[in-house]
Amino acid sequence: MLLLEDDAAVDERLPYLERRRLNWRHHSQLLLNEGQFRQYYMMSFRSYEKLLRLLAPSLRVDESQSLRRTRGDEPLSPVNKLQMSISWLAGYSFHPVRALAGASKPAFYISNHQIMDAIQAHDELQLHFPTTEYE
């Protein structure tokens, strides 16, 4: 009987949850039409797009590996990853942010680390302190 209880405990997993990714085009257009983009993300749409262009090459994933790992869900795109990170950095709780983006809790944290690593690695996004008295 003890053996059966141990076997049951090993095989207990949470059911797979299919997640629907945020449609960024629709979401951003809605915020722009309402004049709420800057309030929501604490930056202009133009600044967001520029930041995305700078970071996107560092945020790509192996799509075939991602599809295997997520049982066919599309991978989080660079725009979804940035949307989650900017929302969280703007002060929103990670629970509604990840739910809106259609991401699991681990995916949220992994994405945030990827965003922070990409920002730290990008020369154009580094802080430059004065090196002389006149700068």
Keywords:
135 residues; mainly alpha
Unreliable stretches:
none
Number of strands: 0
Could you tell me the strand content as a percent range? Answer: under 5%
Query: How is the main sheet built?
Result: none
Secondary structure class reads: mainly alpha
Evaluate the radius of gyration: 19 Å
Q: Overall pLDDT, averaged?
A: 84
Structure, explained:
- With 135 residues, the protein is mostly helical.
- The protein starts with a helix and ends in a 14-residue tail after the last helix.
- The protein has a domain at 44-123.
- The protein contains eight helices and no strands.
- The chain has helices spanning 2-11, 24-33, 37-41, 45-59, 63-69, 78-89, 94-101, 105-121.
- 62% of the residues lie in helices and 0% in strands.
List the helices and strands and how they pair.
Layout: H1 2-11, H2 24-33, H3 37-41, H4 45-59, H5 63-69, H6 78-89, H7 94-101, H8 105-121
Helix pairs in contact: 4-6, 6-7, 6-8
Outline of the structure:
With 135 residues, this protein is mainly α.
